[in-house]
Design goal:
The chain has 79 residues and is of the alpha/beta class. It contains three helices and three strands, in the order βαβαβα. Strand 2, helix 2 and strand 3 form a beta-alpha-beta unit. The protein is flat and about 30 Å long. The protein starts with a strand and ends in a 7-residue tail after the last helix.
Length: 79
């Protein structure tokens, strides 16, 4: 599940800009642009309700640089 995603880590203030840039320069039907949540309470649901239901063959995950690498590791992905 994790192998088909590209992770972009940016300061929280630039997440919206990166999302707009991706939508501007990438074909809509080729990529899903997903914003990784910053609050712990939203993260488990995000993997199930957002990431797992993404229909594109390719995904870009935009995350704040304050999210730790551990929380984005494969061990954090529910099975």
């Amino acid at each position: 599940m994790w192998g088909d995603a590209t992770l972009i880590v940016v300061p929280a203030t630039l997440i919206g800009q990166w999302q707009r840039e991706c939508k501007t320069f990438l074909r809509d039907d080729a990529w899903d642009i997903l914003i990784y949540p910053t609050t712990d309470s939203e993260k488990a649901a995000w993997w199930k309700n957002v990431y797992a239901t993404s229909t594109s063959a390719h995904r870009i995950i935009i995350a704040s640089h304050t999210v730790s690498a551990f929380r984005l590791s494969r061990t954090a992905v529910p099975t």
